[in-house]
Write a structure and sequence with these properties.
This protein is an alpha/beta fold. The protein has one domain: Decaprenyl diphosphate synthase-like (Undecaprenyl pyrophosphate synthetase), CATH 3.40.1180. The chain has seven helices and six strands; from the N terminus they run βααβαβαβααββα. A six-stranded parallel β-sheet has the order 3-4-2-1-5-6, with helices on both faces. Helix 1 packs across helix 2 and helix 2 packs parallel to helix 3. The longest helix has 24 residues. Bound molecules: farnesyl diphosphate (FPP). The site of farnesyl diphosphate has 20 residues, from helix 1, helix 2, strand 2 and helix 3.
Length: 230
């Protein structure tokens, strides 16, 4: 089966480079994250306009706890602030917010704000915005195993397994973009990404523009995808 694609059903983005962007300008890392939020907003809008059904943004990984207490605390506050600030626009654009990751160990005030915003946007039918917070694929897979182990062995297969991941009922990402120059997936959507087209760009996340995004989407639309066939 060969397939060319026009619009990806699902795009995943590893938003890397906020810290370096800030350091280059003599600013604090937290100012880099603030600059990154503006880009989150623009890319979300651009994705809705382009007709993308699912956008997954890697906001905080299970490994990000290794950062300083101040930075982790700043990030959690920034997530809550940003979500509250953009909620009216998300609703206006019929975007449904969904959080993927192990929310059981994030601070209660963050968990409460996330649950409320997901609830407030649950009627959104244009695009699902998955925000990955305390997300890691290995954690996701192990959690799935803990649940699925209660099923009969004959009912466990590749398709049924997918329903126990945080992205249950969603298409696999067709396209994954990583900004910031590193060329790895860093525990992001590992089960789901076997046939994803992957684009790496040197651009640091706060400098990533809709123009660059559209040019990646354009290049994606010309890639031939064989899904293991000829
Ligand atoms: C990676 O850059 C970025 C993060 C760990 C945080 C990303 C978060 C945002 C852009 C805010 C998003 C908000 C919402 C609600 C989605 P880095 O700090 O690892 O950069 P570096 O590699 O240059 O140090």
């Amino acid at each position: 089966m060969t397939s060319t694609n026009s619009v990806p059903a699902h795009v995943g983005i590893i938003m890397d480079g906020n810290g370096r962007w800030a350091e280059k300008r003599g600013l604090t890392r937290t100012e880099g994250h603030r600059a990154g939020v503006r880009v989150v907003h623009e890319i979300t809008q651009a994705s809705v306009s382009y007709g993308i059904g699912y956008l997954t943004l890697f906001a905080f990984s299970t490994e990000n706890w290794k950062r300083s207490y101040e930075e982790v605390n700043f990030l959690f506050n920034l997530f809550v602030q940003t979500i509250q600030e953009y909620l009216p626009q998300l609703k206006e654009n019929s975007v449904r917010l969904n959080f993927i990751g192990d929310v059981s160990s994030i601070p209660l005030f963050v968990r409460t704000a996330l649950a409320r915003s997901a609830e407030e946007t649950h009627n959104g039918n244009k695009m699902v915005l998955n925000v990955a917070i305390n997300y890691g694929s290995r954690n996701e897979i192990v959690n799935a195993v803990r649940t699925i182990i209660k099923l009969e062995i004959k009912d466990i297969n590749e398709e049924s397994f997918k329903n126990y991941l945080y992205t249950a009922d969603q298409p696999d990402p067709d396209l994954i973009i990583r900004t910031g120059g590193e060329k790895r997936l860093s525990n992001f959507l590992l089960y789901q990404s076997i046939y994803s087209e992957i684009f790496f760009t040197e651009t640091l996340w706060p400098d990533f523009t809709c123009e660059e995004y559209y040019s990646i989407l354009e290049e994606f639309s010309h890639r031939k995808r064989r899904f293991g066939g000829l």
